[in-house]
């Protein structure tokens, strides 16, 4: 059986190839979400994009994803996604019930990771992945997913 590292390393050529063949960021996000979702069998895999011109109205808006229906808008500092955005860092949540303010889009979700997508140093989106099992994500996922989303911005 492949280790997590081996699985991430194995999909890296596909990530590079998907990103080199398309310059529309939504299309890139859509295929990247599908690739991760089906390779790893996650419960929910997708993006929230930073949207809005007025800084006071800026919020995360649902982007391309795979999985059950999800909430469409998340405020700065709200939930795991808004926390990763506000604190400018990857957030790993081994047990969503122990994360204050976690937004439960699906009651099936047990653990989660949110990774910022940066363009020229600014966060433009976050990658959110949910698992139906506790403790699915750790520093290895954080490291690989940060590397993978690094291919997204043009
Ligand atoms: N759980 C997330 C909300 C998004 S859904 O998981 C798809 C959060 O707390 O930000």
Supply database-style keywords:
154 residues; alpha+beta; six-stranded antiparallel sheet; 6 strands; globular; binds methionine sulfoxide
Characterization of this structure:
This protein has helices at residues 4-20, 25-40, 79-87, 139-149; strands spanning 44-51, 59-66, 73-74, 91-93, 111-119, 122-131. The radius of gyration is 14 Å and the shape is globular. It starts with a helix and ends in a 5-residue tail after the last helix. With 154 residues, it is of the alpha+beta class. It has four helices and six strands. It is 34% helix and 26% strand. Helix 1 (4-20) packs antiparallel against helix 2 (25-40) and helix 1 (4-20) packs parallel to helix 4. Strands 3-2-1-6-5-4 form a six-stranded antiparallel β-sheet, sandwiched between helices. The structure holds methionine sulfoxide (SME). Methionine sulfoxide is lined by residues 44, 70-71, 74, 79-81, 102-103, 105, 109, 112, 128, 130. Methionine sulfoxide binds next to helix 3 and strand 6.
Provide the fold topology:
Layout: H1 4-20, H2 25-40, E1 44-51, E2 59-66, E3 73-74, H3 79-87, E4 91-93, E5 111-119, E6 122-131, H4 139-149
The structure holds methionine sulfoxide.
What string gives the helices and strands in order? HHEEEHEEEH
Residue fraction in strands: 25-35%
The geometry reads as globular
Overall mean confidence score, pLDDT:
95
Largest beta sheet: strand ordering: 3-2-1-6-5-4
Helix content: 25-40%
Count the beta strands: 6
Per DSSP, the total helix count is 4
Radius of gyration: 14 Å
Distance between the termini: 35 Å
Low-pLDDT segments:
none
**Global structural class:** alpha+beta
Bound compounds: methionine sulfoxide
Largest sheet: 6 strands, antiparallel
